[in-house]
Amino acid sequence: xxxxxxxxxxxxxxxxxxxxxxxxxxxxxxxxxxxxxxxxxxxxxxxxxxxxxxxxxxxxxxxxxxxxxxxxxxxxxxxxxxxxxxxxxxxxxxxxxxxxxxxxxxxxxxxxxxxxxxxxxxxxxxxxxxxxxxxxxxxxxxxxxxxxxxxxxxxxxxxxxxxxxxxxxxxxxxxxxxxxxxxxxxxxxxxxxxxxxxxxxxxxxxxxxxxxxxxxxxxxxxxxxxxxxxxxxxxxxxxxxxxxxxxxxxxxxxxxxxxxxxxxxxxxxxxxxxxxxxxxxxxxxxxxxxxxxxxxxxxxxxxxxxxxxxxxxxxxxxxxxxxxxxxxxxxxxxxxxxxxxxxxxxxxxxxxxxxxxxxxxxxxxxxxxxxxxxxxxxxxxxxxxxxxxxxxxxxxxxxxxxxxxxxxxxxxxxxxxxxxxxxxxxxxxxxxxxxxxxxxxxxxxxxxxxxxxxxxxxxxxxxxxxxxxxxxxxxxxxxxx
Length: 481
Description:
Elements: E1 3-7, H1 11-22, E2 26-30, E3 42-45, E4 48-51, E5 57-58, H2 62-70, E6 77-78, E7 87-91, E8 94-97, H3 102-107, H4 113-121, H5 136-143, H6 146-160, H7 170-173, H8 175-184, H9 187-193, H10 195-201, E9 211-214, H11 219-229, E10 233-234, E11 238-244, E12 249-255, E13 258-264, E14 266-269, H12 273-278, E15 280-283, E16 293-300, E17 303-308, E18 321-329, E19 341-343, E20 352-356, H13 358-361, E21 370-378, H14 390-405, E22 413-419, H15 431-443, E23 447-449, H16 452-455, H17 459-479
Helix pairs in contact: 1-11, 1-17, 5-6, 8-9
């Protein structure tokens, strides 16, 4: 039986391994840490449920629902409360509901008449065709205006990437927005005219995609996938080196008790970009020179090989983010917190990036008569704040929530987790990293790359990446039989 090594037991790696096993292939998942699931982790304590990382899963592709069915989790799926559809953006120091209809847009207090006019005239703005890569900030100010960037898109960027709109590439971080201008000459025209094509492909825009979780949080999904993989998941096992052989790959793994050399027919890297940069990969000599390969100082079986040049991936920026989950008595929160949550533009002067109304979204996220609020701090906006001591992070968030939601008194629950490297930033120039990934796969058959640094940073993007790479690997191994 042919076998596949998967480096990284986050959601991408677990998904890829799950489907490869269903295709009849042997899999081994190597995870350097002592747990699987990556940033997905759910904590049940004192009647509260805290999510360490993402809070919801977006059904942007039919493949997401298929995974839930294949994993046997339909009965544990939770759709959000129908009353929790409202999304808020902070302006004038208060959360204002985002408009959900053209009439709502024309009457909302979220934008001035000048910004509303800028949106109405957008279909008449000439598209850019000179091939120059823009930041999302440049793109939005060109097609709309500065107010729309400062009071809407900046908040959206903070919620998705914890990023800087003046650095993130519209081509790579928001490719569908760029495609609307490229294909239709306008974002608004594209939303209208492209709806039929998106429906035909079974795709749903992230802002319209159904969102869901599970009865005990998103960790239900990773726990289930790992349980079905069983002993194929090897924790506390770090991979430091890969060696290309005539028949496949040798994986050099290290545990607390020693090292091992395992043979596999293919390898999928599903870790982070910084970890990819640290990986040593020695391949057989190529018949032609390559910009991605450099001479290796080592020899294998008397044959001097070549080593993949992976150091550039260390340049991919991952800002730190802190997740602060707090519980409050309902009578201590003036706002009804009925909705998805609120995003906070930098121009409003708060330290938080945004807050999810976790207990309004799904049942059993808080004891009766209480709210669970999940707030994020740090990112590219204020990276230094993410490393504050826990008590200072809680105090900072409480100060913001006091003004924005009318919170008073001390929290009845608190949980803080900090990710020193949280979300890869698809900044202007990110194409060089994607091009390098494509070259590496083309010039090193049997080595595959998947995950949030390549195929999108959302949880749904990572799942689809795992499914797609499993198909690619299975097809390659089938063709080589």
